[in-house]
Specification:
The complex is a heterodimer of chains A (196) and B (389). Chain A has 196 residues and is of the alpha/beta class. Chain A is 35% helix and 24% strand. The chains are: A alpha/beta (196), B alpha/beta (389).
Chain lengths: 196, 389
């Protein structure tokens, strides 16, 4: 499993009610439904991903997240998760508000744009970063709101959102002292566990 | 006529009739002392009697869901695109049952049947039956076939309402539910359409308060009109536009009330053809069953509360251009199921065909159905092997 999913798996409370926004093929849900007996639902818009979830028995609902989460009641989930998708939405800040309305807690992961490789790309080469991890060109990328580890901390501060814990991973690496010491520079993926 | 039976067809099928002597109490307060249900089956029931799938038909459907009755048949059953060996509802793995609902005109007891108590055709005296009554009668059919639990119950439109009712009324008797292009209750607009359909039938001078058979006549004009109206609502604006546009039968406007546009000709044909295969009283009754269905009513409109008892896995499918049973209506069921904490998946399929899309083998739709039933089948196999141990 991806390192970020591995960490989320550790943070999920057993038997909780979990909503996974942009669940893809249901990798995380399938895992935590099995290991933590959670009652989980994924929201997804990609037809192939939806069919994959259906086939593997992961509850998945076709849902356009750009239309919000209006159909879900306040605090109707213990946890709302969104992995590697927040940066793809028109207003990540408003979506974050919605996630914290529907869920008592949220876990968000996103690619840290402050990673040293991105800085080299932009700072030295003068190009928008294209890598195995972020394989898109500036004109065809779904990632329209890149941010850094620090930027997200600031947003939480501004909105009065509590950061319960955070983690940083670089590829498959985690828990290395240099990543922990300077996540904004060394984490490829930022992971935040937040609540109101 | 099929020159030869396609390899993925269930082939030539013969309907069977089950007779019931135990009275059935109906929602309306009346009871049917005895009745027949006509049904077809495809595939083989396994030794554990656990691989049965029940298909619930919609307004104008019947028990003939797949295959051919003879080599002279022009068309196969109404859902042949989805039922057969290797198809989404795979008859090489599942035992599929489809029956004609009570009040129908396909061979089950209904307005065109003889009332054994009076020795006359039921006609307008046939009681109005509801989705709840149908589910009761379907459960009794399952009893006679010694099927305790269905591995899946599947239905579109009015058929989907029956599936929903099953999940509430007999939660122990189904493992999974597939509800396609349906709704938890009709919208006001839908009831209004149904009322126009009923009025066009009942205002036909040949209707005779429903006793047209005794008068040896048929309210063809009214029934045809009802079907024309229904047909328009089953198609999307685009599909009707693409099919006919403003194509005219003659080069010039005729400046009379005969057929100018091809769409007029099409609707007249559809209306006319329908009167040859369908009964007006059945149409009246089926539209009422649609109108009355509202399982959440007994919980002050809280569908999630009513669904709390459900035990099966659910798959819901809607179609983007369906405005008669719009995706939002399916999503009401989905939201209630999520609220109730049930295992549910939902796909909103891009389709141009409107409500009719549920009868088309659209790749994404069939893939979702196949995937869901594959899962159902896997669960069935693992359950069987556990039982064996």
């Amino acid at each position: 499993m991806r390192a970020d999913l591995d960490i989320i798996n550790e943070w999920v409370q057993p038997k909780s009610r979990v909503l996974d926004l942009g669940c893809g093929e249901g990798e995380l849900l399938s895992h935590i439904i099995g290991s933590k007996e959670v009652q989980g639902y994924g929201l997804e818009i990609d037809a192939a991903h939806i069919n994959q979830c259906i086939e593997s028995g992961v509850p998945v609902l076709e849902h356009d997240l750009d239309k919000g989460l209006g159909n879900f009641d306040n605090e109707s989930f213990d946890l709302v998760v969104m992995t590697h998708a927040l940066q793809q939405f028109r207003r990540p800040d408003l979506l974050l508000d919605e996630m914290l309305r529907v869920g008592k807690e949220c876990i968000i992961t996103f690619p840290n744009f402050g990673h040293w490789r991105n800085r080299i790309h932009l700072g030295l080469k003068g190009h928008m970063p294209v890598s195995e991890f972020l394989p898109y060109n500036w004109y065809d990328t779904p990632n329209i709101h890149f941010c850094t580890f620090k930027d997200f901390e600031h947003l939480c501060q501004e909105k009065g959102i509590k950061i319960l814990r955070s983690a940083a991973v670089d590829g498959q690496l985690r828990d290395r002292w240099w990543i922990k010491a300077m996540p904004n520079l060394f984490s490829e993926t930022a992971i935040f566990h937040v609540s109101r | 006529m099929p020159d030869k039976i396609p390899a993925d067809s269930v082939g030539i099928v013969t309907p069977q009739v089950a007779h019931f002597d135990q009275a059935l109490s109906l929602s309306c307060g009346l009871e049917l002392t005895q009745y027949d249900l006509i049904y077809e089956t495809y595939g083989t029931l396994n030794a554990e009697r656990s691989n049965a799938i029940l298909i619930c038909h919609a307004l104008s459907g019947d028990h003939h869901a797949a295959g051919f009755h003879s080599m002279d048949d022009k068309k196969p059953g109404w859902w042949d695109s989805a039922i057969g060996p290797g198809k989404a509802i795979d008859t090489s793995r599942f035992f599929v049952i489809c029956l004609n609902n009570l009040g129908g005109c396909g061979g089950s007891t209904g307005p065109t049947s003889m009332n054994s108590e009076t020795g006359k055709v039921w006609g307008a005296d046939f009681p109005i039956v509801t989705v709840e009554d149908w589910v009761e009668s379907q459960a009794r059919l399952a009893d006679t076939l010694a099927i305790d639990t269905f591995t899946a119950i599947v239905g579109g439109s009015l058929g989907g309402m029956q599936v929903l009712q099953w999940s509430i009324r007999y939660p122990e008797r189904l493992k999974s539910a597939v509800i396609i292009a349906s709704a938890p209750k009709l919208s006001t607009q839908n009831i209004a359409f149904n009322e126009v359909a009923r009025q066009s039938i009942s205002r036909d001078p040949e209707f005779h308060q429903g006793d047209y058979q005794a008068q040896q006549t048929l309210p063809k004009n009214g029934l045809g009109l009802a079907r024309m109206l229904g047909h328009i609502t089953y198609l999307s604006t685009d599909s009707l536009g693409e099919k006919f546009g403003r194509t005219m039968r003659h080069e010039e406007y005729q400046y009379n009330y005969d057929i100018d546009f091809e769409v007029e000709s099409y609707l007249r044909y559809q209306g006319e053809a329908f009167t040859k295969r369908f009964d007006a009283n059945t149409y009246m009754l089926m539209t009422k069953a649609l109108d009355y269905f509202d399982p959440a009513a007994k919980a002050d409109g809280d569908l999630a509360k009513v669904l709390a008892v459900a035990k099966c896995d659910f798959l819901l499918v809607s179609f983007s251009t369906d405005w008669r049973f719009s995706p939002e209506r399916s999503e009401e069921i989905v939201d209630a199921l999520v609220k109730a904490g049930k295992h549910v998946s939902y796909a909103k399929v891009e389709a141009s065909q409107g409500h009719d899309a549920f009868l088309f083998p659209l790749p994404r739709y069939m893939a979702a159905l196949t995937g869901f039933l594959n899962r159902t089948h896997k669960n069935l196999l693992s359950h069987n092997s556990k039982e064996a141990k």
